[in-house]
């Protein structure tokens, strides 16, 4: 409560009170025995609300004076600051003091912003729900990620022209003595490794003005080499990338940019792991991903990714399906070079080791799997890390899997230690619960499409649902 004789600027709160009571300025002025113009000045914070007038308000409208005099500014400022921490505002400098000023001096504007943000969050949640249910498939043509996946999938993630150009570039790099020497000799560029705060969070930056390629010094060695190879591709293979993007056909501008970035990443991997040398090494080392990674100085994930690209006519190797998921099951990368029928919508099967390797980080887990139609595959799964590199830096742990047909598995070192159990001996998994009709699956989350659910009044099955015969 304000002490006797004290005064406060409470214009926005007075305006809200008047509107809540359904009064005009003239009506409130009559009730309080003051002029309408004085009410207007009070609401615009051009006059303070005195303790005497505050008492008069409380008596006239039977209000709790403590509640009326309470300062809501800090609470509104805290709500506003929480909203402004949304990642969509990350590139805008918003000092807490400014949020407090807006909340104190323009509470209606602050409240409007909070309502808009709440509506935005509701819409984003609804869109995510529709996409997860597959209802967003009709709009997929406007999804740049879907456009890039279609482009890559139609070519089985194999681009022989890029492989050939990258192999020639790798020879030039080797003759110059390495990536850093290539930049110096061919483009007079110096490579520097700088702290992340200097690079403002970037992993790599090409500074044309200072003639430097700047790399985040917290990256591990495989990631440093990959970023250098990627910048090399953008400088030396620009025409090759342009020619490939011209083949895209109809696509959004964002889709074209994402496809170009995907092709550049492909070419960078091809520079580090040239096709001819890599294809020869995979056979010699029986597709041992870790051994190949150490041989080429790449990461486990980079090497596994490269294994999906070996489809050059006359020089083909085992076709693989590659997938990467996080602990929530979100798919961040999917490449199909082996015809594995992975669902585009809905969650994966929890019986697949891809989803359980988080309990054994860094360990390769082989698994024979069998789909409901009898198709059999061999899978290896392992966790991989991203980020980190310094104390307190966030690190993301994800899981990747490589899958090949059962017939190709004997060529893999992993299958030699885990012999083929034969039909019916692998782990019975489904593409997704909606498409899997195994009635006794203990891991089922949803009933399959087209199957009626039986009543469980007289018995409760071990599975989540009791399904009628087809």
UniProtKB/TrEMBL annotation:
Looking up InterPro entries in the UniProt record yields: Cro/C1-type_HTH, HTH_RamB, IrrE_HExxH, Lambda_DNA-bd_dom_sf, ScfR_C, TransReg_Diox_bact_type
Entry GO CC: cytosol
The protein's matches in CDD domains, at most eight in alphabetical order, are given as: HTH_XRE (cd00093)
**SUPFAM superfamilies, alphabetized:** lambda repressor-like DNA-binding domains
Q: Entry's SMART domains?
A: HTH_XRE
Segments forming domain HTH cro/C1-type: 14-68
User: What does the record give under GO molecular function?
Assistant: DNA binding; DNA-binding transcription factor activity
Transcription keyword on record: yes
Record key words, sorted: DNA-binding, Transcription, Transcription regulation
Q: Family per UniProt?
A: Belongs to the short-chain fatty acyl-CoA assimilation regulator (ScfR) family.
Q: What is this protein called?
A: DUF2083 domain-containing protein
* Organism of origin: Novosphingobium flavum
């Amino acid at each position: 409560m304000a002490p006797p004789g004290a005064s406060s600027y409470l214009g926005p709160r007075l305006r809200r009170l008047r509107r809540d009571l359904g009064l005009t300025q003239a009506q409130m002025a009559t009730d309080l025995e003051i002029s309408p113009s004085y009410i207007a000045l009070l609401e615009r914070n051009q006059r303070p609300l005195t303790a005497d007038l505050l008492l008069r308000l409380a008596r006239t409208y039977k209000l709790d004076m403590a509640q009326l005099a309470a300062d809501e500014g800090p609470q509104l400022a805290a709500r506003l600051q929480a909203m402004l921490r949304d990642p969509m505002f990350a590139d805008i400098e918003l000092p807490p003091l400014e949020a407090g000023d807006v909340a104190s001096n323009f509470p209606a504007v602050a409240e409007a912003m909070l309502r808009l943000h709440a509506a935005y969050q509701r819409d984003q949640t609804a869109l995510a729900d529709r996409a997860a249910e597959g209802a967003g498939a009709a709009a997929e043509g406007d999804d740049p990620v879907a456009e890039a996946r279609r482009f890559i999938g139609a070519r089985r993630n194999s681009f022989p022209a890029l492989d050939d150009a990258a192999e020639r570039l790798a020879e030039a790099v080797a003759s110059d003595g390495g990536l850093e020497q290539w930049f110096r000799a061919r483009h007079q560029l110096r490579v520097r490794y700088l702290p992340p705060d200097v690079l403002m969070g970037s992993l790599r930056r090409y500074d044309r003005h200072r003639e430097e390629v700047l790399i985040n010094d917290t990256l591990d060695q495989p990631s440093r080499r990959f970023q250098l190879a990627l910048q090399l591709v953008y400088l030396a293979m620009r025409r090759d990338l342009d020619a490939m993007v011209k083949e895209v056909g109809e696509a959004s501008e964002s889709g074209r940019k994402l496809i170009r970035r995907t092709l550049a990443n492909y070419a960078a991997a091809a520079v580090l792991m040239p096709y001819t040398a890599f294809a020869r090494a995979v056979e010699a080392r029986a597709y041992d991903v870790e051994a190949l990674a150490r041989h080429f100085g790449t990461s486990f994930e980079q090497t596994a990714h490269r294994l999906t690209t070996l489809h050059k006519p006359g020089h083909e190797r085992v076709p693989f399906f590659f997938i990467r998921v996080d602990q929530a099951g979100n798919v961040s990368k999917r490449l199909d070079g082996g015809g594995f029928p992975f669902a585009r919508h809905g969650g994966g099967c929890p019986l697949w080791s891809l989803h359980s390797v988080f309990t054994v980080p860094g360990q390769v887990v082989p698994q024979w799997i069998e789909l409901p139609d009898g198709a059999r595959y061999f899978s290896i799964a392992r966790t991989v890390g991203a980020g980190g590199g310094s104390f307190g830096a966030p690190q993301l742990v994800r899981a990747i899997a490589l899958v090949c047909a059962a017939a190709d598995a004997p060529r893999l070192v992993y299958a030699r230690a885990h012999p083929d159990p034969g039909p019916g001996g692998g782990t019975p998994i489904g593409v997704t619960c909606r498409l899997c009709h195994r009635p006794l699956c203990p891991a089922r989350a949803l009933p399959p499409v087209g199957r009626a659910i039986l009543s469980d009044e007289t018995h409760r099955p071990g599975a989540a649902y009791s399904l009628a015969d087809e």
